[in-house]
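S1.2 Input.
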Amino acid sequence: MNMVFLGLAAIVLLAGIGTYLYYFIKRIFKTFKAPVDKLPVRVIIIVLSVICGVCSVNIFSLPAMIIYHIVALSMAVMLINFIIKKLSKEKYETMNVWKKIYGSGIIAFGITAVIFIYGHYNMMHVVQTDYTIYTDKEIRREGYRAALIADVHFSVSVDLNTLKEKCDEISSNNVDMVFLCGDIVDENTSKENMEQVFKAFSEIKSTYGVYYVYGNHDRQLYRNNRKYTEEELKSVIESFGITILQDEKAEAGDEIVVVGREDASYHQTLGKAEERDSIEELIKDIDKDKFIIVLDHQPKEYEENSMAGTDLILSGHTHAGQMWPVNIAFKFLKFDDAVYGYTKIDATQAFITSGFAGWGYSVKTSSPAEYVIIDIKGK
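S1.3 Output.
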């Protein structure tokens, strides 16, 4: 039902955008004294609006995001113009400077340019985000420190030198565990780049090692001509001493158990009817006095985790929407149990990182590009 609704909404949206773009482009031409009623000019306007409409079909592409921003901002300016026109009445006809500004669309174009320049800068500057959480379980006095990394999508934005610098930063935090929560690579990552990124992360200094779960993009399931096979990916990761967990668990010292989930969409993407194991089944034999950390690329099954008795869920996937106001739409549509940051479900705590980078293009405005340092302390 959700897919049907989204499909209809997309058709209505694109039809509306196409119609609006025609009149918006026509207004710009008219502002610059182009003879918009003549056939050649009219054809140019139609062609431009069709091109923009086609570019906006793929909502995950950079051209589409630019067009959506221009449309939204120009509509906001149109509302402002309507208010000015109503308030100023006859004086509006003498407001030539404002009419030129409004008609040319320069405000929408200018603000869009600023947003995307900022968004590019924001994604290219990965920051450290710190959290401290507390548990009633008995753990060592100094607690534990973990690094959470997800959604690198190497190399959409981050290059190898920057990646190594960030890995050195993480090492300087003296972490006990490093958690790679999926989408470290994606469909556009070469085999060479795939090897480079996992080698870099394997070199982060930690007490108990690096743990990894697959995301929905890592295995290049969305393309036919994959640049590496699943077997090659698995072999490379394991060759660097990284522990892969696919509905499996591993002990990190005497007090912590790490449970890694198979990606929630994996079987569905392959067209298989089977489902991943339940969290209840996975942890039924674990000593519940131990602190149980669940790595799940997609932030789902929070209630199930809470009922089963897990302590901490770590995820990525959402990119915190990547572009504002997509993050707000994600909260409304509820594709996942949460979109970004910290959540508590009874005794279970959860974090979603906005990601080391983003997918598709190197622009991010809804949140920082980040890795997360989490301190786990007893009360």
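S1.4 Remarks. Residues 127-378 form a domain with the Purple Acid Phosphatase; chain A, domain 2 fold (CATH 3.60.21.10).
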